[in-house]
Amino acid sequence: MSIIQQHSSASLGDAWRTINIDALDPDSSQNFDTSTLHPPLPEISEADVRQLNGQIRQLLRGGDAEGALRGSLENPVYNGSDSAKDAHLQTVVEVLQSIKASEMTPMLQRIYGSEGGSELLDVLMKYLYKGMSGGASSSGGPRTAARILTPQPTGFSQIGSRPGGTNESTGTAMSVLLSWHEKVVDIAGLGSIERCMTDWRRV
Asked: Which of 45, 36, 59, 41 is nearest to 87 (CA)?
């Protein structure tokens, strides 16, 4: 009798597929807490964000646009509620819109040349992408209304309001964010985009 004939269909089943091989590997993520790979981030409340944003706006009103930009980038909201993150994004966009185009490159060069400047530009890149993805409108508020899909008689859906409304101001905000994106890439290089995309911390 051959060895194949000695085994029944039950013994030749797919039971081997139920073995969890990862549990037998000492280097597997199942054998240690993956949360220990990342340092814990402090929880930032909405009250803390409001206080920080007030200080940043005070610097902006005092004419210290670079100080306002540094302050907003040195204190990113990584671990907080969505409303707290949106409020800080609103402030960052407000600061970016208040800076003249002629001042953008020199200001970014000074920030990049300072201690920790590369990380600050990476944080700025995160906020630029969040703003461009619809995280904030030109007025700084959350773009919830502009994200609503409006059914049209043609069968298509229209995102946002009709031309002549908030779309113009939204387009202006997008233009500002794209201009900043270009300047950041010119100074920090394409590596800033890669670091922004691969960083597990989200603003």
From this structure: 45
What the block records as the tokens of 75 is 């204190």
**pTM exceeds cut of 0.85:** no
- 44-198 belongs to which homologous superfamily? Actin-related protein 2/3 complex subunit 5 (1.25.40.190)
100: left (phi over 0), alpha (psi -120 to 50) or beta: beta
How buried is 25 (Cβ within 10 angstroms: 0-12 exposed, 13-18 middle, 19+ buried)? exposed
pLDDT digits (tens, 9 = 90+) for 135-174: 644 444 444 333 434 444 544 444 444 444 455 567 788 9
Q: How many CB atoms lie under 10 A from the CB of residue 22?
A: 11
Exposed, middle or buried by CB within 10 Å (0-12, 13-18, 19+), for 85? Answer: buried
Q: Residue type at 19?
A: I
**HEC string of 72-102?**
HHHCCCCCECHHHHHHHHHHHHHHHHHCCHH
